Amino acid sequence: MAREITKYNNRSRDLSLFDDFFDSMLGAWDNYSANLPAVDVEENGDSYVIKAELPGYKEDDVKITVDKHVLHISGEIDEKEKDGKDRKYLVRERRHESFERSFSLPEGLDESKIEASFNNGLLTITLPKSPEEQPKKIEVKITK
């Protein structure tokens, strides 16, 4: 009986190592998503609005493009220190070297009228909807 308990305990230990492996792998996945800016996507009557938090970024650090109905938002911060001194960091959690987010755009947008503004680290992109086309009414004339 003691032998079976030992086997069970060894198996538990093996499962614990297995769980640790996946926890560390998922932790790396979590860190990847942590480097992406948080976004909100809203829909109102005449447009969609995307708001992205980009603390530490300046307007010149951010690039927005639309290609084949996909909106791309990317940014890069130059990590070089202005004074040129090498620094030895003990903990560095604020660094965001670069990111890219992409959003598939829905049908019915007027891509030529997309606008963006950047204020205090908040990027706001307004995607106006195209005016809905009304069915065209055709008058039918009866000829004799």
From TrEMBL:
Residues in coiled coil: none
Lineage top rank: taxon: Bacteria
Alphabetized PROSITE patterns for the sequence: SHSP
Domain SHSP: 30-143
InterPro entries in the cross-refs: A-crystallin/Hsp20_dom, HSP20-like_chaperone, Small_HSP
PANTHER family found in the cross-reference section: HEAT-SHOCK PROTEIN 20 FAMILY MEMBER (PTHR11527)
Recorded family membership: Belongs to the small heat shock protein (HSP20) family.
Name under which the protein is recorded: Hsp20/alpha crystallin family protein
